[in-house]
Amino acid sequence: MTTHPFLDLAPLSAQHFASIEERVAGLLSTSQDVVIMQGEALLPLEGCIRGAAQPGTTALNVITGPYGQTFGNWLRDCGATVVDLAVPFHTAVTAEQVRQALAEHPEIDFVSLVHAEAATGNTNPVAEIGEAVREHGALFMLDAVASVAAEPLLPDAWGVDLCVIGAQKAMGGPAGVSAVSVSERAWTRLAANPRAPRRSYLSLLDWKERWIDGGRKALLHAPAQLEMLALEACVERIEAEGLDALMARHATAAAATRAGAIALGGGLTPYVHEARDAAPVATTLRAPDGVDASELVAKALSADPVLPLVAGGGALATEMIRVNHYGPDATRGVVHASLAALGAAMGETGLAVDLEAARRAVTAAWQ
Fold first, then answer.
1. 309 by DSSP, 3-state: which?
2. What whole-number distance in Å separates Cα of residue 258 and Cα of residue 275?
3. How is 62-100 classified by DSSP, letter by letter?
4. What are phi and psi of 178, to 5 degrees?
5. Which of 173, 227, 238, 331 qualifies as a FRET site for 266, CA 20 to 30 Å off?
6. Residuewise pLDDT in 10s, the chain (367 residues)
7. Spatial distance between the Cα atoms of 91 and 95, rounded to a whole number of angstroms
8. At CA 167, angle to CA 16 and CA 325, rounded to 5?
9. Is residue 307 a contact partner of residue 337, using CB atoms and an 8 Å limit?
10. What would the DSSP string read from start to end of 179-210?
11. Would you call 263 helix, strand, or coil by DSSP?
């Protein structure tokens, strides 16, 4: 019988599982409980909302992209009253806008926010927003899937009660496991909610009562072993590179992509208007007038299918191009190649572009 590196592995022990949780906590600089959940990040995100929200909950749901819209749907499904704070996808929400919404609705006791929206390319000022939420006294849930390892993320310092991360973007790890840090006040909130999931794959309380309170000695179920080992490996790689160096690499990739796109010309422009609002994990670009973004991306990928180029989702498919320069793709070579492919595709459609100017702009940004 032949074997394979992915098969016939020794069982993952509870001790090994707990040690990976500890390393993830170190990545987040948190002293809160960290639970690694055995699924993509939508699992803990939904688990957090269904654990914290119920009829009588009033939630401020900040919408800066599609995930904020999803959170609002879950909150309403839980019977919560939802106050949506939606801002245009080409910008970021401000702490002042959050403060105003909280002042207008003093009954708000839960706030949901996406740190960085990879789908729209914006990022939100969580430190300032967290201060406003803390002053108000609401429970604060943050989706940091697209920001972790790409930009500073400090849930304890920022007053984040439920901070969800996934490894598949800037961390350069697997998509099949995710993690959430949980504050003591969040545990209290979940335990007091009779509608919080229990005996369920969505249940954070099951992990609290059967794993954490039990001294992390017995796992709830057989762990997703390959994904857990991949998560450990990607954390080891981050530790070897250094978190500050990794974040700097993402910031440089974003600045280079933005500068190169502007220099390329042809009507290609940054989708997020202000650089300060742009996420380091992905740069979104507005397609030239009269050009279908999805067709342009398809043409660019026909020359190099592995480039991290995608068209916007849903209604944005015709106007938005996304360069996903995260994880191993946050490099000068990938940025150069992505813009060169876009430039060549634009040239084929008859647009005047300056590939050399784009190359120089990318090189200058990287230096």
1. strand
2. 8
3. EESSHHHHHHHHHHHHTT-EEEEEE--TTS---HHHHHH
4. -150, 175
5. 331
6. 788 889 988 899 999 999 999 999 999 999 999 999 999 999 999 999 999 999 999 999 999 998 889 999 999 999 999 999 999 999 999 999 999 999 999 999 999 999 999 999 999 999 999 999 999 999 999 999 999 999 999 999 999 999 999 999 999 999 999 999 999 999 999 999 999 999 999 999 999 999 999 999 999 999 999 999 999 999 999 999 999 999 999 999 999 999 999 999 999 999 999 999 999 999 999 999 999 999 999 999 998 999 999 999 988 999 999 999 999 999 999 999 999 999 999 999 999 999 999 999 999 999 8
7. 13
8. 150
9. yes
10. EEEE-HHHHHHHHT-TTS--SSTT-HHHHIII
11. helix
Q: How far apart are CA 230 and CA 167, in angstroms?
A: 9
d(CA 223, CA 17): 8
As a whole number of Å, the CA-based R_g of the chain is: 21
SS3 232: helix
Assigned token pair, 109: 């006791």
Strand order in the sheet with 269-270: 269-270, 283-286, 320-323, 309-311
Kindly report the pTM of this predicted structure. Answer: 0.97
Q: Which residue, among 331, 13, 333, has the nearest Cα to 172 in the 3D structure?
A: 331
State phi, psi for 259 to the nearest 5 degrees.
Answer: -65, -40
Distances (CA, A) of 332 to 220, 309, 342: 43, 15, 15
Contact 109, 81 (CB under 8 A): no
User: What own/partner pairs with CB < 8 Å and gap ≥ 24 does 308-313 have?
Assistant: 308/334, 308/338, 309/338, 309/341, 309/342, 312/119, 312/120, 312/284, 313/66, 313/119
Q: Which of 47, 50, 74 is nearest to 63 (CA)?
A: 74
pLDDT of residue 3: 84
Grouping H, G, I as helix, E, B as strand and the rest as coil, residue 213 is coil
Q: Are strands 283-286 and 320-323 parallel, antiparallel or unpaired?
A: antiparallel
Quick one: tokens of 4? 């394979």
